[in-house]
Amino acid sequence: MTDQPALMPEEIRIARKFKVDGKVQGVYRTPSPDDFQTAPAERLELSFEGVPGDRHAGFTRKSGGREPWYPRGTEMCNERQVSILSVEELAEVAARMEIGDLKPEWIGGNILVAGIANLTRIPPRTRLVFEGGTVIRVDGDNAPCRFAGAAIAANYPDREGLDLLFPQVARGLRGLVGYVEKPGVIEAGETVTAHIPEQWIYPRS
Which of 8, 110, 139, 183 is the most buried (most CB within 10 A)? Predict the structure, then answer.
């Protein structure tokens, strides 16, 4: 027990909840569950398992290098059903890599949006509500890896080291991963509203 008084919410809150609108620029899915790179689609049909037939679809998934607290291959809930990328952030990464273009499908994106500033920094628990009624709950940012860097490098065979450069320059710009909270269909041209929850820093004492 401690005599230290508990911190009131007003003392630790750093941001109030709010919402911001963006626009869907494109939707993508993997041609088969074995593919990493996605391909443009006319529409994206989402179920509670994610994008049916997509590489990352499923209620559960196997743990990997991102989950060192589990033995590799442990079955766990799938909070990474959908990858959301930003037009503005992809352009920034391309500029940092000094390449002409960075297409969302090269790095496995499912949904490309524009107009939401600092998309990758959107906090967990944010609800992405699409105009057609579909809702994706954000789990968090998607850490850049060499595997995605290799996919980019394959499109620039005259440049060496892009596979390693991508993880170095894309941190904080790689987009988000999330899971389907409300199934539906997403198409290019839709408005998407990010409902940002209240945020605070956890006080350790």
Answer: 110
